Amino acid sequence: MKSLVKNSILFLVPLVIILLLLEIFLRSIDTSYSEKKKGLVANDVKVELLILGNSHSTYGINPNAFDLYAYNMANVNQSLYFDKRITLKHLNQLPNLKYVLIGIDYHSLYFSDQKIRNIWSYYDYGIDYKNQLSFTSKNSRIKGYTLKVALTFIKRKYSGNYQKIKAIDVEDGVDLNQPIQKGWFSFVGTEKGLMNEKSYGSTANLFNYTVKNSTEKTEIISNLEDFIGILKKRNITPILVTTPCYEPYKKLLSKKYLDTNQADVKKLTEKYQIAYWNYFDLPLDQSCFHNCDHLNGKGAAIFSKMLNSRLKSIK
User: Alpha-carbon distance 82 to 47, whole Å?
Assistant: First the structure.
């Protein structure tokens, strides 16, 4: 019996040490969330324009293209639920904030759950999605990231390719040779393997499924209205923005929901007297896209310059 206990301890001690080291590593890594937060906090008094949204805004709106000091706090799969709460956490430290660009896409009014990224956001933003996060996930990065993701992060960390961008949670195709600037990072070039009917259909089917099966719309619109109201009371101008998508892909999205979205957004703009800049149908060459619904660095430069020009016209 004593021998069994001793052998069990000898087996468990190295395992516990490995898990402890992995936990320490995961708590120390740089992610897009930690980098964006650090940059915002370091430059909070400078920020005049805040960019929010999901991956379409993350990659598609380059803050360096604006005359105002802009900062991109959008992130992959980031919902309006998090857009609002991230902003409100920092609003009192943004004394010069004048405008907030709020990304509105085909599925924005139909989802709030970021799935695994709920806990990723919690680690750096402290936002507990609808108070649903487990105690274990909150306090153990291994549990929160999952072991598979943790091992991927280790591999990336020591591959030598993530030194400039630092954030090792970024998607494949991101420019690893450019550091995150004002919260922004970009896709490199066009992923030719994704520019085909099969890929367009797969992406469209995912979004069509999301909007058709959602039961959150009323709650999400109410959340957005409250956010808009708070900003306006602070004399901050909210502007709703839709980024461009590649033409062949757009045809596969449900026209019914595209029309419904337009009607919903129109009600918001009329009720709160705010602008909606809809560039969904902006005709851009394929070379401006990384895939069917995300701009690359080239596309972001063109699109962001347009936004800057339009912003200057209302100043």
Answer: 19
